[in-house]
Amino acid sequence: MEQTIQDGKLVELTYTITDDKSGDVLTSVEFPLGYVHGHNEILAPAVHAELAGKKAGEVIHVPIDCNDLYPPRDESLVITEMIDNVPEEYREVGTTIIMESNTGMTKNFIVTRMDEKTLTIDGNNPLCGRHVTFNLNITMVRDATDEEIAEGGPALPEIEIEGTSKVPVDS
User: 150's torsion region: left (phi>0), alpha (psi -120 to 50) or beta?
Assistant: First the structure.
């Protein structure tokens, strides 16, 4: 019997996020992402609500107004700097730079523009102000183990290295 997504089920899915205005794919997850429904909310709450009751093999489309998820765009978080002042490893559009305030708080900034003289970083969430659609392909639904419930997702495989204890690894 096919299982439906509900609390305590391990769910694996792939998805893309498309911008409703441009049709551009903003994010694509090609390898199944696993989580325990009701224990690890990894996607927007509206997406989790739409997943409930669905089965493996189903494809669903969930429109999201990102204004409901993120604060309004803050132009003070867009910074343009002379490229000579930026370390070489950050000089590529799409690179994430973690900045720390004088109080120890961290914030991700993304390199959004670059030319011969300047580089621009943006600390706003890339989905801020957009209307997007999550296109989800549910690849698996099954009962989660106690370990998976405790972890919030699939248990990582362990490897044993001689002379050490078992160490979880990403597969």
Answer: alpha
